[in-house]
C-alpha cells in the first residue's frame, strides 16, 4: 500500500510509462494545439462534473502531459 503522495505519483508515473500512454495519445493527436482544442470536450457535464481539479488547471495538465515540444 502506498504511504504518501510521492510514492503514489511515482507508481502512477511508472504505470503511465509502462503503458506508453503519451505515445498512444500522440498516435491519434498530431500536436499539442489539437489536444488543447479538445479541452472543452473534456469537461462536459455528466462526464467531468465529479472532477477533482478546476477547469483552469486542465490546460496546464495537458501541456505537462504532452511533454517537450
Write the layout of secondary structure elements.
Blueprint: H1 5-18, H2 21-28, H3 32-37, H4 55-66
Q: In total, how many beta strands? A: 0
User: What's the main sheet like?
Assistant: none
Q: What is the mean pLDDT?
A: 84
The structural domain count equals: 2
What shape does the CA trace take?
Answer: globular
Portion of residues in beta strands equals: under 5%
Please state the CA-atom Rg, rounded to the nearest Å: 14 Å
- What is the chain-wise order of helices and strands? HHHH
Helix/strand-derived category reads mainly alpha
Question: What's the helix count?
Answer: 4
* Poorly predicted ranges: none
Measured as a percent range, the helix fraction is 55-70%
Termini gap: 35 Å
Structure description:
With 69 residues, the chain is an all-alpha fold. It has 2 domains: 1-30; 31-69, no CATH class. Helix content is 58%, strand content 0%. It has 4 helices and no strands. It has helices at residues 5-18, 21-28, 32-37, 55-66. The longest helix has 14 residues, at 5-18. It is globular, with a radius of gyration of 14 Å.
Throw out a few tags for this protein.
69 residues, mainly alpha, 0% strand
Concise description?
This protein has 69 residues and is mostly helical. It is globular and about 35 Å long.
Amino acid at each position: 500500500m502506498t504511504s504518501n503522495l510521492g510514492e503514489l505519483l511515482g507508481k502512477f508515473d511508472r504505470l503511465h510509462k509502462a503503458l506508453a500512454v503519451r505515445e498512444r495519445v500522440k498516435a491519434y493527436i498530431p500536436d499539442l494545439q489539437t489536444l488543447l482544442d479538445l479541452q472543452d470536450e473534456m469537461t462536459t457535464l455528466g462526464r467531468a462534473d465529479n472532477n477533482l481539479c478546476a477547469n483552469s488547471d486542465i490546460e496546464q495538465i495537458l501541456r505537462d502531459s504532452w511533454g517537450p515540444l
